[in-house]
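Methods — Computational structure assignment.
A single polypeptide chain was analysed. Its primary sequence is given first, followed by the predicted tertiary structure written as structure tokens.
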Amino acid sequence: MSVQSLKKLQVWVRAKDFAVKVYKQVLPLLPQEEKWSLNQQLRRSSTSVSANIAEGHGRFYYQDNVRFCYNARGSLEETLSHLIFSFEAGFVPEPLYKEFESEGEEIEKMLNGYIAFLKKSKQGENEPGANHKVREEAELYGTETSEP
């Protein structure tokens, strides 16, 4: 995969732009005492969305790609959670919060669509090692009763 093919992936572009907006429009609004907590959490979770999409995109087996997209979706939800808190704590004005909420929902829909596409297309299904599975055998658990 190349950077050019990644730049054509609309869900990645939207997720990256979302993180840039968080950096430019939300982080400056946070109070100084949040520099090492909420600020850092927002930085990490917002950039993690596009980073996970990119990492999955670089994998040749669709199940790896899907797994990283699930991680991206989790990071998006984490970012939205931090934004809700930022709004409710009075750090972010309501119009800006609503804008991020709406955009986050759009990105989530795009991500869900991309996951569905990957599962349906099964890209990389025949790559070497794609059909190897690692499983642990389930152990049987029982209960012992001691009778008097």
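Note: The radius of gyration is 20 Å.
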